[in-house]
Structures are given as structure tokens and as C-alpha cells.
Amino acid sequence: MSTAVSTTEEVHAHGHDHGHDHEHEHHELGFIRKYIFSEDHKTIAKQYLISGILWAFIGGSLSIIFRLQLGFPDMSLEWLRPILGEWIDESGKLDKEFYLALVTMHGTIMVFFVLTAGLSGTFSNFLIPLQIGARDMASGFINMLSYWFFALSSVIMFSSLFIETGPASGGWVIYPPLSALPQAMPGSGLGMTLWLTSMALFIVSQLMGGINYICTIINLRTRGMTFTKMPLTIWSFFFTAVLGLLSFPVLLSAALLLIFDRSFGTSFYLSEIYIQGQALPNMGGSPILYQHLFWFLGHPEVYIVLLPALGMTSEVIATNSRKPIFGYRAMIGSMMGITVLAFIVWAHHMFVTGMNPFLGSVFMFLTLIIAVPSAVKGFNYITTLWKGNIVFTPAMLFSIGLVSLFISGGVTGIILGNSALDINLHDTYFVVAHFHLVMGAASFFGLMAGVYHWFPKMFGRMMNKTAGYIHFWLTFVGVYLVFFPMHYTGIAGFPRRYYSFTALGNDGESAFTDLNAFISIAAIITFSAQAIFFFNFFYSIFKGKRSTQNPWKSNTLEWTAPIVPGHGNWEGEIPAVYRWPYDYSKPGSEADFIPQTVPHSATPESNLPEENDEIAKEKEIESLLAAQNESYNR
Amino acid sequence: MNYLVGLLSVVFFILAITVISKSLKLNKNLSGENESDSALDSHNNTNAFGFLLFWLFGTIAGVWSFLHSKPDFLPVAASEHGVKTDSMFWISMAVVTFAFFITNSLLFFFAFQYRNDKNRKATFYPVNHKLEIIWTIIPAIVMAILVFTGWRTWRDITSQAPSNAVVIEVTGHQFGWYVRYAGNDDSQLGNINYKLIDETNSLGLDFTDKNSFDDFTANELHLPKGVPVLLKIRAQDVLHSVYLPFQRVKMDAVPGMPTKFWFTPTISTDEMRAKLGKKDFNFKLNCTEICGRGHFGMAITVFVDEPADYKKWVSEQKPFLTMNPAYLSKVPENLKAKASKYIPAEPIAADSTATEAVSVK
């Protein structure tokens, strides 16, 4: 608690340690280098977060527009003409192509720009240096480039919403040949070109971010911060970065081949196509090849958005239950298992695409194996709550919500992963319900938990708690009301990406007219409830109550840094780490938490027998100080 | 409307909680208690009760909404494999619903039960290897059983079609389906070639192949009841997907890569009409792979006939060559004699293989 306190002399000495180039920078940083082209991980994290929040509102409002069509197919949307213009047709209805564009852009924005960049980009950047005890990322410059590539990619994707032929409209998976042939739909013209350009830049951004996260975690941990003393957040960011680094290049290759097919006349994905009265010359390509390449990223992507949420939740749940996370090593092991398995389950998205059924069998076996580590995580969260002393901060509420959504959406994965059952359910609303709960909503709840929990560290102020509670309850109830009933329409055989369900015939659509209207109303209320967060967030940045140094009484390293950490994060030496991050309510200890910086020699009353051996290592840890400083002065 | 009432009551319920908690807070503030620096505040119990209430109302809403929606689920499967996958689906659903209910209940109950109490200290309980092993092994065993039964069913469904299977070709295009039968004389589908497609020959039938001569096309799908049917599936332009919801059949249509799915329809259209009490009921073939503007309307009607009725219908159909005698010119010299038997003495009006694409403009 007080180990990080240093005397002014030390601070002064430290300033000299840093060498002259650094000192020079400290004084010369202008507005642009400080807030725009910043190399400071904290500023970059905030840039990611605010971009992510803005994208979330865009992506969310797109979904509200198509929910209006699905819930109220007879409603006149004439009032949206000032915004959507020609996309509202003469009869006052949403244009059918634009409906598909909305679905596509909603998916793209939410998966990549909100839950990948907004979630992992924000918290990997913010928490990795602060929780492992580093002054900044391994390469601040590459980190800055990572954000600005993302920003460029965002601008391109955003601009595609405004072109005359509309944005990409072939679904977020952009399967060719639909996405490869501009004559197949207008959205496959310029809109798709912009989509591919934007995604290529996005992937570059992710790779630069990912390599930085991995290097930082491996190389820049403070003295004493061994891998087994890292918070689960850091473990999850590490696995996320590994997943991204290995799978995003494959998406890039898929996108490049698609660009070649579209612009340079190759036939990677095209074969024997007759369209618009014309037989195309392309022979020998395979649309299935694209699907393999896409899902080789697409499936790990699910865990890229989910693992950081799970990691942060572990931290928040342990802190607010005032209990160690149950099964720390099992949690790491299951995340490692998920990471490895994530690479070998991708074809479960393709059971009925015409892929060899034998491959389907293999992927069914592998897919259901991944349910085991996921189940272990769920059980461990629940056991962490057991006999805790739970403080319901907004972050804690969102974390418990995440666990509930993770379970509720996860169990249906066991059904969908079974290829025989997937035949009927593939591409129905059952799938929509499944992935929105387990990946969409759960990750979003993780994002919210993270924002509420680390807001004080980011801005030195507190968010309003009561508004947080209201936001949570409306969102939690709302998310269930939106996605739970979708299982029913799925079981009734309603396909996704349908503008209306009239062609199902036999008056099938009327059975669920009420339900669809209900889902749409619930979606509108849930979306509107996010305004509470929006105002709370921006208001609290400037006017929130000032935070204390460690408002949640947490053990991890970031709370030993100044309330608003400056450049380099810690004034004076970076604190050393002596223990794991989950010593909450330790028997024998007076306080109900013992930060990682407290040596075991200072807590003889609460040490477990094996921990007394750790005391001998403290000297060793302290002796690393010189080497550590050395590494920053090189 | 029921749903709206339900939703509104939930919203008002939440608002009520908010108002109560807000006034509680005001009371606290009036009594001068300062809680500003603590993560713990007077709402802690309210939030804990919230989880309990969420659990209670969630359970009621879940059960009620399921029972309410159940009559509108797909009716009993109209194919042999569909009956098996349906029963497996509901067994798996029971297993996962059990797991879902138990785990969520524990989650909410623990959240409520172990809400903060100043006089209590949390139990330091970091690990229990036995527990970890138990709940690794139990899901693993359950999963293994589910996978194994699923795999056997999948293997049967995707096995080779029986040799007596009726072969029917379905071709997806923007935005409709072409259906082609092997004809009355041979049971072989002739070759097709996408480069031969023109306005009339919309499938690109290749008349250098003698098997094409008796092939006929249709704009609705007729299937014989109780006989295995092998659907050969093609696409002309972009991906489509054949979905027969009532028969639980789904397979993508891929340009350049023919796919297939075989199944045995078990309930005829008439029987289904009687069963559902809907006189105008019809099976449908829908598209489930996004394919453009008209995706949602890309459907044709499917008739499952008694085998005798099916035979009768097939025998009434005229080969494409009979309907469009001009294509005799595409037949090579050595096969002309064989082909000419399909050419009617009196030329009949040419007819294109129209499809029942739903107008989407």
C-alpha cells in the first residue's frame, strides 16, 4: 500500500536516470503529441475506448433500424427519410437491399470495431503496462500507428455508409461470389471495395497492437512479476493477442484473394458462374476456400472478443467478492485450452456448406471439446461468488451479468456444434440468439464492467454509481428480452437475414408477429438505456467525483500508481511484486486485501506455510531493480 | 399484445425499484451518513434482491414464453432423419436447459446470499483440485455422449444415397429455384454446362449428352412419399441454400461445386394438411444463404405425393426437348435419331422454364 511512496529526492534521482532524450520529450510535448498522435498507452487506450463507444452507437442504431422493419413490417418509415433518403423506397418502407446493408454493417461494426478494437484495444493498452508494472508498451510508436491505422480504417468504413450504391451488403462474412460480383448486388460494388480496404487496414492495426501486447507482457514485467503472479486480465490479453496474431493474417489473405478476384480477374473463389444473362469465364475456383480462410479467423475472433471480457471479469469478480478467484491455474489452463482449440473448430460454421461430411464429423468432435474449458470457467466464477462478501459495484453487476449471459448463450453452442442438429438450425434465429448472447452481449458486458471498474484509473474520477445500477438493470433485463425469444423463432425455422417472413408460407410469419414486435420494442428500450451510460461516461470525465487511489480496494499493481498516472506511470521506481493478485480476505490478515506489492515478510500472520519459502526470494527480486532500470535507460 | 403488456410491466417494475432505491439513498443522505468514499453503498442489498427477483421473474417468463411459443414451432418432422434429429434436439435441449437452469440459479442465489455483510468475512477458498476435476469430467462425459449420438446420426444422414433413390436436381439462382427431373425413359440426369445457358435453356442442358433428351423441368418440387430422394444441388450465380423446413433438410448451393442431400419424405402434403387442420397448407423450399435483394422471397412450393400420384405426375410431364424442339439442332448427328423421338409431330409453342420467383421489386 505504501511501498510505492517515494521521497522527492528519489523522484528527482529517477528523473535523471531516464536520460536526456526522455527528459527533453517530457517538456516539449505539445497538444498534438499529447492527445492526438500520442505514444502513451493510456492516451491510446482512451482513444480506442471513445472510438469504440462512438462505433457502438452507430452499430446499435443500425440494428434498431432493421429491427423496426422486422418488428413492424407495416410501419411507414417515411420519418427516417431525412436521414436515409433514397434508402426509404416510394412506399415508405426500408429498401430491401439496404436492409441487408444494415445487417452487414451492424455485424462488421460490432464484431470488429466495437468488440475487437473497442474492447481489447482499450483494455490491453490500458491495463497491460499498468498491471505488469511497465512504464509503457514495448514500442510506443508502433502502438500509436496501431491506433491510427484503426482510425483510418474506421474513416473508410464509415464513409462507405454514405456512398450511392450503399455499403457492403453480403453479410458480415462477405461470402463470395455474392461479394465478388458487383452485378450480384449494388453493395458488392464500391461499398465492398471500401469494406475490404478498411478491413485490410484494420488487420494491420490489430497485428501491430497484438505484437506489442505480446512483447510487452513477455519482456516488460516488473521484478517479481512472474507469469504465475500475473492477474488473469493479463493472461487473457496475452492469449487474445496470440489468437489475433495467428489468425488475422489468414483473414488478410482471404481478403487479398477476394480483391484479386474482384479487380484483377483471378478465379480463387469463382467458378462456372452465369449471372445477369452472362456466363463468366472464371473456372476452377471454390467459394468454400474463402469460407475456410474466413472462419479460420472468424472462429478465433469469437474468443478474441470474449477472452478479454472474461479476463477482466475474473478480476472484477474476485475484487468485489473479496475472495480470491477460484482455481487461478485452472482459469489459465482453460483459457489456454480455449486458445488452442479455437484454431481447430472453425469448420463448425460450415457443416452444411457442401464441405465433406467426414470433415464435419471431425469438427463436431473438436467443437464439443471446447465446451469443457468453457464450462470450467463458468463453474469457477460461480464458486468465486460462493461464501464471498459481495460488493455490487456497477462493474460487479456487469460481471455477474456476463457470467449469466456466457452460460445462457454457451449452452446452445452444444446444440449448434452437433452437426446433425445444425442441419435444421443453421442460419436460423437460433444461431442469432446463440452468438448474440455468448459473444455479443457477454463481451459487451465485459466491456462495460471494464469501463466502470477502471474509469477511476483512466480519468481520476468516479462514474455515478446509481446511474450505473439503472444502466445495468435495464441492459441486463433488456438483453434477455431481446435474445431469449429468438430461440423460439429459430426453432420455428425462421431464417436470419430475411427482410420479411412472408415467403415461409402457410401464414407462418403471423404466429410470431407479436414476438417480433416485442423483440423490437425491447431492443429499442435496451438501446435507449445506453444513453444513461453515454451521459454518465462523458459527464464523469469532467465533472465526476474525484477518485481515491484505490477505490475498489484491489490488489493489482495499477492501483499503486498515482490517481492520474503521468508519463511513465509510476513516479519513482516501479514497484516490485511479491505475491499473486488474489490475496483477498486472507485468514490472519487484518485488512481484507493484500496488494501484490506487499512482501510476504511483512505479513507473517497471514502467510500460508508454502509462502514462507517465498520470503527467501524477496532479496532476489529486489536485486533485479538495477537491471530493470537499465532496460529503460538503454 | 401479451408481450407488450409483459414488457411494460417489467419496465415499470425496474422503474419502481429505481425510485425506491433513490428515495432510500435520499434518506441515508439526510441522516448524514457519508458513503462517498466507499465502493459499498446503500444499494448493495437492492442489487442483491434484484438478482433474486430477476431469477424468479426470469424463470416464470422463460417457462411461460416457451409454452406460449411451442404450438408455433415447426410441426413434427416430415422425413425419416428429421424425426431422429428432432428427438435428439429435444433431448439435448433438456440436458442444456437443466445445466442452464442450475448454473444460473446458483449464480443468482450466491449473488443474493453472499451480499456484503459488515460482520462477515469472505472465505479464503482459492482452489480445490477435486472439484475442478469433477466439473471437468462431468461435462466431458455428457459432451462425449451427445457427440457420439450426434455423430452416428450425422454419419447416417450423410451416407451414400440408397440405389433406389429418386434423383432430382435443384438449381438456385437470383432469385428462384429451377427443378429438373431425370425423365421418364432413363433415370439419368443429362449433363449441364453453364456456358450453354440462354433465355430458354435456363439450366444449360447439354444436348450432346443423350441422357438430357428426356429430362424435364418444373417450377415446383414434387417428391414421392416413403421413397428416398437424392437432391442434387447447384447454384448458377452466388451461394444459395436449399432449406426444406418441414423435412429438416438444409444444404448450400454452390456455384461450380454441386452438392447433395438425400432423405426420405414420410408425410404427404395431404396428410400434413389433415394433421395441421389447414386445408391450404403447403411444404416450402426456402433459401437460407444470403444471396441478394430477393433472398427472403426465394421460395417454391413442395408437394409430397403418394408414390402412385407421384408416378402419375411425372408421367404427365413433357421433356424439355419436346417443349422446345428448336434445340434438336444442338444434338450431334449420331444422336439425332434418338433425340427425334422426343420431338412432337406438331411443333408446340416454346416455353421457357419459368420459375416461381416471388416478385421483390
UniProtKB/TrEMBL annotation, chain A:
GO terms for molecular function: cytochrome-c oxidase activity; heme binding; oxidoreductase activity. One of its GO terms (biological process) is electron transport coupled proton transport. Keywords: Electron transport, Heme, Iron, Membrane, Metal-binding, Oxidoreductase, Respiratory chain, Transmembrane, Transmembrane helix, Transport. Residues 9-23 have a biased composition (Basic and acidic residues). The chain crosses the membrane at residues 48-70, 98-128, 140-163, 194-220, 232-260, 293-314, 326-346, 358-379, 391-416, 428-455, 467-488, 517-539. It is a multi-pass membrane protein. PANTHER family: CYTOCHROME C OXIDASE SUBUNIT 1. Belongs to the heme-copper respiratory oxidase family. The gene is coxA. It is found in: Membrane. This is Cytochrome-c oxidase. Its EC number is 1.9.3.1. Residues 1-23, 593-620 are annotated as: Disordered.
UniProtKB/TrEMBL annotation, chain B:
GO terms for biological process: ATP synthesis coupled electron transport. Its cofactor is Cu cation. Keywords: Copper, Electron transport, Membrane, Metal-binding, Oxidoreductase, Respiratory chain, Translocase, Transmembrane, Transmembrane helix, Transport. GO terms for molecular function: copper ion binding; cytochrome-c oxidase activity; oxidoreductase activity. Its EC number is 7.1.1.9. It is an enzyme of class 7 (translocase). Binds a copper A center. The keyword Transport applies. SUPFAM superfamilies: Cupredoxins, Cytochrome c oxidase subunit II-like, transmembrane region. It is a multi-pass membrane protein. Its main location: membrane. InterPro entries: CcO_II, CcO_II-like_C, Cupredoxin, Cyt_c_oxidase_su2_TM_dom, Cyt_c_oxidase_su2_TM_sf. Pfam families: COX2, COX2_TM. It comes from the Bacteria. It is found in: Cell membrane; Membrane. One of its GO terms (cellular component) is plasma membrane. It catalyses: 4 Fe(II)-[cytochrome c] + O2 + 8 H(+)(in) = 4 Fe(III)-[cytochrome c] + 2 H2O + 4 H(+)(out). Belongs to the cytochrome c oxidase subunit 2 family. Subunits I and II form the functional core of the enzyme complex. Electrons originating in cytochrome c are transferred via heme a and Cu(A) to the binuclear center formed by heme a3 and Cu(B). This is Cytochrome c oxidase subunit 2. It comes from Aquirufa nivalisilvae. The lineage of its organism: Bacteria, Pseudomonadati, Bacteroidota, Cytophagia, Cytophagales. The gene is coxB.
